[in-house]
C-alpha cells in the first residue's frame, strides 16, 4: 500500500504545484513539508483536511481509501436521464406536429365533403 506522503507527492505533481507553494498554503516550512512527502512527519487531521483542500481532493483520496464512485455514477446517470429526456421531448414535439398536420388534413377533407354535399343538394 502506498504511503500517504507518496500519494500527496503524486497528487501535488499532477496538479503542477511546487513543494514551496503547498507548504506556504499549509502554513509549514518547505523542510517540514518535504518530511511529510517522505513519510518522516505525521499529519494532524486538521493538516490532512487542509492538504486535501489545497490539492483539490478528498481526505479519503489522500489516505488511499477506495472511492465509492457514487458521485460520478450519479453524474453519469443524470447525464443519461437528461439525454433521454431531450430525446423524449423531441419525439413528443414531432408527434404533436404530426397530430396538428393530421387535424389540418381532416379539416380539409370535411370542407371538401361539405362542398361536395352542398353541390349535390343544390
Q: What do these coordinates show?
A:
This protein has 122 residues and is mainly alpha-helical. It folds into 2 domains: 4-63, lambda repressor-like DNA-binding domains (434 Repressor (Amino-terminal Domain), Orthogonal Bundle), CATH 1.10.260; 69-122. The chain has helices spanning 4-14, 19-26, 30-37, 45-55, 59-63, 70-121. Helix 2 (19-26) packs across helix 3. It is rod-shaped. The relative contact order is 0.08. The mean pLDDT is 87.
CATH class of the largest domain: Mainly Alpha
CATH topology of the largest domain, by name, is 434 Repressor (Amino-terminal Domain)
Q: Tell me the number of helical segments per DSSP (H or I, 4 or more residues long).
A: 6
Please tell me the total number of domains: 2
By CATH, the architecture of the largest domain is named: Orthogonal Bundle
Q: Give the SSE order as H and E letters.
A: HHHHHH
The proportion of residues in beta strands is: under 5%
Name the CATH superfamily assignment of the largest domain: lambda repressor-like DNA-binding domains
The tally of strands reads: 0
Classify the secondary structure makeup into a structural class.
mainly alpha
N→C terminal distance: 98 Å
Instruction: Output mean pLDDT.
Output: 87
